[in-house]
Amino acid sequence: MHDTLLLFGATGDLAQRYLFPSLLRLMGDGLLPEGFRVRALALSPHDTEKFRGILRERFASLSHYSPTPEQVEAFLERVDYRSVDMRTPASVAEAVRDLADRPCVSYLSIPPGLYMSTCEGLALGGAFAAPSRLMLEKPIGADLASAREINATIGRLIDEDRIFRIDHYLGKAAVQNLLALRFGNALLEAVWNRNYIDSVHILVSESEGVDGRNSYYARSGALRDMVQSHILQLLCLVAMEPPASLEADRIRDEKVKVLRALRPFCASEARRHSVRGRYTAGMINGEPVQAYSPPDDSDVETFVGVTAHIDNWRWEGVPFHLCTGKRMAERSTVVTVTLKPVTHWLFERPDRNNAVPNRLTFRLQPQEDIELGLMSSLAGPEWGTLELHPLELQLSSETGQNRRIAYERLFLDAFHGNHALFVRNDEVEAAWAWIDSVVDAWRADNSPLQPYPAGSWGPDDAAVFLPSSFDAVARPSRDDR
């Protein structure tokens, strides 16, 4: 198990909110090696004591975990800080050269534009010598061309089997449970194809806005930020063929097949199969919030709904409706699988056209639930037949206050060298190829941005992309906007 972490971007929001708290908890639980240490690296001109003070203050306000003062101090003793200019390989090399004799894991929590220069510096400083490893935060590039350039450059410096590309959704226990439910239950696998499934909806909604990420978001938008990574990974877990084993590359082989089978988008279908939106002023949890205004007046979206089709035997003709947005009514991640109606309808009430279809719903956050919607009978002698009513079967799992952060699992897997929950280079490029086709279609069609008030479920045209339970939520009338 590797015992040294080089954490670049140590003063950033991700590192402060998630990465350092995850490491603190892992150490408190005795899951890190005895000699474990962290070198924090960023541009800010702090010294080690000042940086430890920043972390100490952050640890005092954790909401999901309450470490003891002794645990905090024991962890901080293992952290030192270096100021580094990641645009300059020589600066990076100088900051890490004294640790090159240890088995290091370098974590790049920095903009992708700094990946290549930082990696060149790590190689120059000896931190890429085997068996050292590299962890990369998403996004890997901003399109297929830049992703290929980054992958090629880094691939010349460190072997692919020592690179761990992160999509933190894969570290969530509820997301991993999709594999267990699909491949551990004959009941589901028997109907998991185009013969029985009518449609699939995948929703990742956020009540938070773009606050604090303006410069990044103005370049990316919801499509590149969320669909390219999190949502396409969920799609892969729903749609992939059964792998030969749970070995990392067997799982990733099947995910790549799904991404390569995605039908490229075209301009003639852009408006029918997608919608772009941007939130305006509104209310979130009873509090007024401002509209999003990109710093450079870019044409960037904060909401996207897009219908994907997978051109293979299992999923031919089944639409996958993908949807994500900022400043929506609630924070939620939901996968809804809607089954086709029964072949021959016997009942008078409801009639065939008004029957509620069977649905299997996976709620991944904030609460982890599995719901199965069936039709049940109530005797109705006055109608001379059976009357059917919806019946919801629900299995809930309390996450509680001591829930694990996904990064805890991902850190441990990277330190141990387990690739199963990480993304391979060909996965990244296959995902970008499809995203680029959507961007090109929007550009050719001049697809407009549709406004939606903060606290709503997106633009007026969003209903088809939302799961039924969210589509049914009342939308504010135009007079109220």
Concise structural overview:
With 481 residues, the protein is of the alpha/beta class. 33% of the residues lie in helices and 23% in strands.
Which helices and strands occur, and which strands form pairs?
Elements: E1 4-8, H1 13-28, E2 37-42, H2 48-59, H3 69-76, E3 79-83, H4 89-96, E4 104-108, H5 115-124, E5 133-136, H6 144-155, E6 163-165, H7 173-183, H8 186-189, E7 197-205, H9 214-239, H10 248-261, H11 270-273, E8 274-280, E9 282-284, E10 287-289, E11 303-309, E12 319-325, E13 332-339, E14 359-365, E15 368-380, E16 385-397, H12 406-416, H13 425-445, E17 449-453, H14 468-471
Parallel strand pairs: 1-2, 1-4, 2-3, 4-5, 5-6, 7-12, 8-17
Antiparallel strand pairs: 7-13, 8-11, 9-10, 11-12, 13-14, 14-15, 15-16
Helix pairs in contact: 1-12, 4-5, 6-13, 9-10, 9-13, 10-13
